[in-house]
Amino acid sequence: MRVAFLVTDFVAPWDEGGKNNVRGLVDHLGRDWELTFLGLSDRSRTCAYREWGVHLVASPGFGSPWRRLTYPLGCLNLIRRGTALLGQRPPDVIVSYLETASSALVGRTLRRLVAPRALLVHVVWNDWYEPGPAPPGVWLTEHLPNLVMNGRWLSGAGLRGVDCILATSRWLADQVGRLGLPVPPWVGTGVDTGRFRIVRPVAGRPPLVIGYLGHLTHAKGVSDLLEAATPLLESLDCRLKLAVTGGEESSLLDRISHRRIQVEGRVDPVEFFNSCDLVVVPRRSSHGSVSYPNTVLEAMACGRPVLATDLPGIREVIRDRIDGHLVPPGDPAALGARLREVVTAAGTLSAVGLRARERVEQEFSWARLAPRTADLIEDRWRARCIG
């Protein structure tokens, strides 16, 4: 079976977004699929992932704060390149793992042009966008383009022509149903539990290390974390370690001068999580973003307790006070209070982290989820062939 994956920036570094999930999926398929990868990136190039070809197309402004404004131009480039490439050897299945549900329009166009008989699958892994309070600059670079490209109307328009919709969280499956479409199967997002593992046990004694790994976009809530954690650094024996990359709140880094706050750039996530006693995911919202972040599953797989905001997708993974901790989003006071409670009861961190690891092994490993996803795709493809 020839399968073409549409996925953004399918090259190293891997530890972010949809491309990491596609890699986890295909690495654990256990199927003899002939794969091709097409997607957007900062520049056009052809490379390989294992024995499969990867064809990347330049998208204007890729990696800049303006990338969402120029995304439609990148999609047009992708359609032109994909038409030439896939027309030589049409796929049996096109799997769209692009960022927004509206991006299913790219897959629909490619199928119509090069492979009308192909099964079109779109994996929904990002929530539709709804604006919230934000600085004016965020409205221009994030809110406005997301409202257009990742709003409910265009998301529904894109998905209505798809043969098979899959959802990575039960919340997103329900969201698809609210668009007036059939509720799709849940396939989950997984984690490589062989790579993400416990290298060092949680120390559970001072000085405790509180960690955050991710971007500095407004939705990630790093400013809430700093507001919540800074008072604790003065009164408790702990420190805050941030492994961060760019975003709308990058200016925060210029104002950090506390002796107990350590700032790093891109890191090995396995090493980073194993250096922490507690990992915090302080998201303000999941609208327009991945339903539950990879960092939650990866930190849990490393045996680290995660303190996260109580968003719909995240609460599917973390059970409050059992294998992690949940607090209301956008509430630095509540975040600070729970941080103080957890750090003060440091002796419980190890047990919570071990339960987190156990939950990920049982429910969210790619070894468990990838075959399920492959079965769903193959069953739909066979049914289409018979029909």
Could you characterize the architecture of this molecule?
This protein is α/β, with parallel strands linked by helices. The chain has two domains: 2-190 and 365-386, Glycogen Phosphorylase B (Rossmann fold, 3-Layer(aba) Sandwich); 208-363, Rossmann fold. It is built from twelve helices and 13 strands. It has helices at residues 17-27, 67-86, 104-114, 136-149, 152-159, 170-178, 222-235, 269-274, 294-301, 332-344, 349-363, 366-386, and strands spanning 2-6, 34-41, 45-49, 52-58, 93-96, 119-124, 164-167, 208-215, 238-245, 261-264, 278-281, 306-309, 325-327. The protein has a seven-stranded mixed beta sheet, with helices on both faces. The chain has a six-stranded parallel beta sheet with strand order 10-9-8-11-12-13, sandwiched between helices. Helix 7 (222-235) crosses helix 10 (332-344). The radius of gyration is 21 Å and the shape is globular. The model has no long low-confidence stretch (mean pLDDT 89).
Any chance you could write out the topology, listing elements then pairs?
Layout: E1 2-6, H1 17-27, E2 34-41, E3 45-49, E4 52-58, H2 67-86, E5 93-96, H3 104-114, E6 119-124, H4 136-149, H5 152-159, E7 164-167, H6 170-178, E8 208-215, H7 222-235, E9 238-245, E10 261-264, H8 269-274, E11 278-281, H9 294-301, E12 306-309, E13 325-327, H10 332-344, H11 349-363, H12 366-386
Parallel strand pairs: 1-2, 1-5, 2-4, 5-6, 6-7, 8-9, 8-11, 9-10, 11-12, 12-13
Antiparallel strand pairs: 3-4
Helix pairs in contact: 2-3, 7-10
